[in-house]
Amino acid sequence: MKKFVALVCSCLLSCMLAGPAAAQELVVSAAGSLTNAFDAVKTEFERINPGVRISPNYASSGALYRQIEQGAPVDVYASADQKWMKEMVSAGFVDQDAVNDFVHNSIVLVVPPDRSGNVTSLMDVTGDQVRFIGIGNPDAVPAGTYAMNYLVEHGLWEGLKPKLIFGETVMQIVDYVRRGEVDAGFIFATEAKRAGDQLKVVGALELSQPVAYPIAPLKRSKQPELGRKFVQFILSNQGQEILAGYGFSQPE
């Protein structure tokens, strides 16, 4: 009996010393334009899933792809365009059947508030009053890709090339415009909303295709079930309501 009591006490002591179970960590690599929205999603997802910790990683969609390509441990990938998700599928990092478009955005032309009189329409950027235009690097920043495609389709790209100042993230373009380092810039509408009265929106580009954001869990994830659960939360009414609060619209 004494041996049994001693064994029980030893087990209890071991459990006490071991402490609480380690949290399940889910690494989510998401486009920079999702930063505030996904931070809010993270808070709510962790609240309703005790013992889960979301570790977000924000950058341009292209930069995130290259991190994954180089072996970064990522469980879920959310891109700001289709191009980089297609690259993920082609490289075998995600299954096409697991890809879901979860929000839409739009591209807007913005200017510093104190120069709003100089640019009142898109065509004004071709005038002499506009010397520099901020745009995301089309090779890595989806907002820049969408803007470039629009300008090419409307025959404006070549003429504007000498004025273009490229950034590696949308936020870099926001900062350029806010500080007056460029006379205008192309950014996501959600970033313009976040900037508030620091920027003046001239108008939205009428694109030939929607700015759809896809999301998918990675095949090599160490938390496949949790990754799928996170994606389903993003697609749920609760997740969509959070995202809508940051200016994103739900895909039709």
Could you please describe the fold and organization of this structure?
This protein has 252 residues and is an alpha/beta fold. It has 2 domains: 136 residues, Periplasmic binding protein-like II (D-Maltodextrin-Binding Protein, domain 2, 3-Layer(aba) Sandwich); 98 residues, D-Maltodextrin-Binding Protein, domain 2 (3-Layer(aba) Sandwich), CATH 3.40.190.10. The protein is 40% helix and 22% strand. The protein is built from 10 helices and 10 strands. The strands form 2 sheets. It has a 5-stranded mixed beta sheet with strand order 2-1-3-10-4. Strands 7-6-8-5-9 form a 5-stranded mixed beta sheet, with helices on both faces. Strand 1, helix 2 and strand 2 form a beta-alpha-beta unit. The chain is elongated. The termini are far apart. About 4% of the residues have low confidence.
Quick take:
The protein has helices spanning 2-18, 35-48, 61-69, 82-90, 142-153, 157-160, 170-178, 189-195, 224-235, 237-244, and strands at residues 24-31, 52-59, 76-78, 100-105, 107-111, 133-136, 164-167, 184-188, 200-204, 211-217. It is of the alpha/beta class and 252 residues long.
Return the domain count. Answer: 2
Q: Which CATH architecture of the largest domain is right?
A: 3-Layer(aba) Sandwich
Helicity, as a percent range:
40-55%
Rounded mean pLDDT is 92
Distance between the termini: 69 Å
- Please tell me what the overall shape is: elongated
The CATH superfamily of the largest domain is known as Periplasmic binding protein-like II
CATH topology of the largest domain: D-Maltodextrin-Binding Protein, domain 2
